[in-house]
Amino acid sequence: MKRIKIWAIPAAILLLMLPFVVQMFDNADFLLRIAVMIGIYIILTLSLNIIVGYAGQFALGHAAFYGIGAYTAALLMVNYDVSFWLALPAAAIVTGFFGFLLGTPVMRLKGDYLGIVTLGFGEIVRLIFVNWIDLTNGPMGIPGIPAPSLGSYTLGSNMDFYYLVLVVTVISVLIIRRIVQSGFGLNLLTVREDEIAAESIGIRPMKYKLLAFTIGALFAGVAGALFAVTAMFVSPDSFQYVESVNILAMVVLGGTASIPGSILGATILTVAPEALRFISDYRLILLGLIIVLMMVYKPSGFWGESKRKRNFFGMTGR
Amino acid sequence: MLKIEGLTVHYGVIPAIKDLNIEVPQGKVVCLIGTNGSGKTTTLKGVSGIVKAKAGRILFEGKDLTKVDPHQIVHMGISQVPEGRGVFPDLTVLENLQLGAFIRKDKKAIKSDLEEIFSLFPRLEERKNQLSGTLSGGEQQMLAMGRALMARPKLLLLDEPSMGLAPIIVQEIFKIVRRINEEGTTVMLVEQNAKMALSVAHYGYVLETGEIVAQGTVNELKNDDMIRKIYLGIH
């Protein structure tokens, strides 16, 4: 039933060959590092898109989930010698649980209020990272996160990390796509559109909002674990409020409730600050300008919902 | 089928409806008419569970609905078409209709019901791939009704189906209401357009500031002097 799109094959070859192409440049490690961050941000953006784009809940604390995932993986691997392949799902589950915990009280809030509470949650989590020195080593962070190993082979180089992140990202994208293109995704959209109307057809908005928070957090945890193991170091600095805003910008700029949009948004906003490095301090101003112009001229994002595949259940002759 | 006993609903400290008694017998169309703020919509929202009762009972097939959550009430067989239609504007017509069958699992019957809805509202079939936000007001009303019917309700609650629509569309809508009823669905109808409401209903209640001031069969109401003067504009 599912056909592989024609463009998927060259795209896959390109992604697989990329590290070798990159070797031709002097700064190959730097470029690979950016590619790794793109993968991590794609997962983060998609996970936030479930909450913001599909369920329509304006959440501003996504960096907290990212951080919880990173710290969970780091602590398990450094303190308890847990292998990465166990730490990754553990980080996802722990973070998903925190998403559930946060979702339970805040899903009664809407709009700005929800934004403020989730922002507060993000700050609380960051302050815990900074101040619970016994557990998190405070502002000094956790260094020396061991490289994951596959049998006797240790994934230690940037190229290894690239493939690791590529595989996890592709799997995450496929799972999230499956989730949001199912009836569940459609039910999430009804909650975003009109909660009372959703109730009038028997949908329970609370349940769907809570699930969106849980699934969104879960994948942010996956991204966190990937970050921890590829950076080999975590500290509270990586999970500041700015990071939440950054991810939100990727969602909005890419296009809410759109998977290609999220991938595009994450890629562009990860590459742009690096590509604009030559104008040094002015690059953030330029980036800000681009975002403002986008919001004025193309508010639906790079790949907005207008391109959403019509009719979820495929019952039409289209 | 539905029996409202002594229903009282407050918004804050202000009573919206007081000690209401309404009965909806199986297979009939019962209408509530009245002016703005008379409590018609509140009564309907009480039945669908969106507002909570302060006192009184709402019995549906013998079960009290006052403590049941709105989404569970849908499962029990009551569907509401919300005031202002409440379609999901960014979803297509087809998606809206299929979502109406959210509580059902019988895929085959859903498909044949969908065909039935399309024969009831041919306009919807023409526009099934269109985003519902781009439909006209009358088409959105049809879509909202079709969506509610997709749940195969025993009781259909209609909140002001004529609101904001051209007279010719209103007539079409009411023809369909009659047809829905003839096919076996009990209907509770809230309307400001008393003339139209009385043309399809079997039984009517007149509300004023949260209290019933008149009730009876449609013929009794049509011949009532007060109702003729105030609600039907006949002197």
UniProtKB/TrEMBL annotation, chain A:
Enumerate the transmembrane spans: 7-25, 31-52, 59-78, 84-102, 114-133, 161-180, 210-235, 247-272, 284-303
At the top level of its lineage, which domain of life is listed? Bacteria
tRNA processing among keywords? no
The entry's localization annotation reads:
Cell membrane
The alphabetized UniProt keywords are: Cell membrane, Membrane, Transmembrane, Transmembrane helix
Q: GO CC annotations?
A: plasma membrane
Q: How does it sit in the membrane?
A: Multi-pass membrane protein
Q: Which InterPro entries match?
A: ABC_transp_permease (IPR001851), LivM-like (IPR043428)
Task: Identify a single GO molecular function assigned to this protein.
Answer: branched-chain amino acid transmembrane transporter activity
Q: What is this protein called?
A: Branched-chain amino acid ABC transporter permease
Organism, scientific name:
Paenibacillus abyssi
UniProtKB/TrEMBL annotation, chain B:
Give the GO molecular function terms: ATP binding; ATP hydrolysis activity; branched-chain amino acid transmembrane transporter activity
What is one process in the GO biological process aspect for this record?
A: L-amino acid transport
The UniProt entry, under InterPro entries, shows:
AAA+_ATPase (IPR003593), ABC_branched_ATPase_LivF/BraG (IPR030660), ABC_transporter-like_ATP-bd (IPR003439), ABC_transporter-like_CS (IPR017871), BCAA_Transport_ATP-bd_LivF (IPR052156), P-loop_NTPase (IPR027417)
Q: Which residues form the ABC transporter domain?
A: 2-234
Q: Which Pfam families match?
A: ABC_tran
Gene3D superfamilies xref list: P-loop containing nucleotide triphosphate hydrolases (3.40.50.300)
SUPFAM superfamilies named among the record's database cross-references: P-loop containing nucleoside triphosphate hydrolases (SSF52540)
Which keywords, in A-to-Z order, does the entry hold? Amino-acid transport, ATP-binding, Nucleotide-binding, Transport
What domain of life?
Bacteria
Q: Which family does this protein fall into?
A: Belongs to the ABC transporter superfamily.
Q: By what name is this protein known?
A: ABC transporter ATP-binding protein
Q: Which species does this protein come from? A: Paenibacillus abyssi
